[in-house]
Design goal:
Layout: H1 4-15, H2 27-31, H3 34-44, E1 46-52, E2 57-60, H4 62-68, H5 77-81, H6 89-101, E3 104-114, E4 117-127, H7 128-131, E5 136-143, H8 145-161
Antiparallel strand pairs: 1-2, 1-5, 3-4, 4-5
């Protein structure tokens, strides 16, 4: 098992731009230092974020900035909300506001507009205590666009297969 405070501290270090990280002595830090956490998040395609609830200040790592198409600098929930698909904004606001009050893990899947494309994002984190350490929530963003497009294609195919005469299989190139 890990100590949440040590791991949370290491995640904070990953999000701090230009900050040099040195591992604290002990069995946890030798396994979960910031450099190893970065390697793991890079391998998994995970973007990190923290949200100071009181100041409405989001801090995101480079992967999250690229996912959202946002350059560095101060970021608020409203800044992110401007990029969320209009059909999903209410659901996302509700999920994040609920996460501020409810203890436990949460996940919200939604679409964002990035340049000329729609991306699906999965935001995952821990709401309230113990996740809101010092009124700061920590979480991850995952780009789940490929998975969602595959699910949509599967559902469309299943719908077409369920309606005889609508789906035709064309063989040959004549």
């Amino acid at each position: 098992p890990y100590e949440r405070s040590v791991l949370g501290s290491q995640l904070s270090d990953l999000l701090a731009p230009g900050r040099t990280v040195t591992a604290e002595p002990g069995p946890v830090s030798s396994v979960w230092d910031a450099n190893r956490l970065r390697m793991a998040t890079d391998a998994a395609g995970v973007g990190l974020w923290s949200w100071n609830i009181d100041a409405d200040d989001f801090t995101m790592d480079e992967r999250s900035h690229k996912l959202w198409g946002i350059s560095g600098g101060p970021i608020t929930f409203e800044d992110l909300s401007k990029r969320i698909h209009p059909d999903d904004i209410h659901k996302v606001r509700t999920a994040f506001m609920r996460a501020r009050k409810v203890v436990g893990a949460y996940e919200a899947n939604f679409r964002i507009q990035h340049r000329d494309e729609i991306r699906w994002v999965s935001a995952r984190g821990m709401g309230a205590e113990p996740g809101a350490v010092g009124r700061t929530m920590f979480g991850v963003f995952l780009d789940v666009s490929e998975r969602m497009r595959a699910e949509e294609a599967r559902e469309m195919l299943a719908t077409e297969m369920g309606h005889p005469g609508v789906f035709r299989l064309v063989i040959g190139t004549d």
